[in-house]
């Protein structure tokens, strides 16, 4: 009986190990808490709007395929998106490949209806604590425009530029745009507008609340689609700009 018990225990541990080892190869779902995980290997790319840098070779592609603004999901000719993430001590880096049949930037003032123009949106929660971030810096929601301007909402509910937080370069050939973005990670709970805010030094195994999205406009007064990397439950799926608990977990490997 002792031998049988030991054998079963050994088999269970072996299968558990194999299951966990395989999970790192793709986006995984934690069934206990419903959280989506992303994994970023170490590397420092040259930010030139190209995907050919060898720093990206070991990072896997993740899809931007969740419809955050119904009523309908665009077809692949209208929009298709995927991305990779890597990191070094100084920055988080994103490589996004976006298929978009029309690039639209109709608002001359970058602080007015910036979310209704085509833009890449990066959600970052430095300590993955979740919770409200609509009008505070508990998390950032960086809207990166076609001209590489970066906008988010300040605690006083005004719209402001945060160009010093991100370095962005985009190359577009035909209907495919390649974005390379470097993002400094700030401790939002201690972030002070106009203060001496020092970016965090990133380390292996750090966990960051994270999601990537794209606002897609096809020459309408408002964006037709808002596509994200995270499934969001309920009728109102456009809530990530308010609630960092809806973000995934990005682990630095």
Q: What is the alpha-carbon Rg in Å?
A: 19 Å
Helix content: under 10%
CATH C-level: Mainly Beta
How would a textbook summarize the main sheet? 10 strands, mixed
Overall pLDDT level: 88
Distance between the termini: 42 Å
Walk me through the topology.
Layout: H1 2-23, E1 28-30, E2 35-40, E3 62-64, E4 66-67, E5 79-87, E6 92-100, E7 119-125, E8 140-145, E9 150-153, E10 159-161, E11 166-173, E12 176-183, E13 207-216, E14 225-228, E15 248-252
Parallel strand pairs: 2-15
Antiparallel strand pairs: 1-2, 3-5, 4-14, 5-6, 6-12, 7-8, 7-13, 8-9, 9-10, 11-12, 13-14, 13-15
Description of the molecule:
The chain has one helix spanning 2-23, and strands at residues 28-30, 35-40, 62-64, 66-67, 79-87, 92-100, 119-125, 140-145, 150-153, 159-161, 166-173, 176-183, 207-216, 225-228, 248-252. By secondary structure, the protein is mostly beta strands. It has one domain (31-252): Sandwich (Immunoglobulin-like). Strands 1, 2, 4, 7, 8, 9, 10, 13, 14 and 15 form a 10-stranded mixed beta sheet that branches. Strands 3-5-6-12-11 form a 5-stranded antiparallel beta sheet, with no helix packed on it. A hairpin with a 5-residue loop joins strand 9 and strand 10. The longest helix is centred in the N-terminal third of the chain and has 22 residues, at 2-23. The model is unreliable at 1-33 (pLDDT under 50).
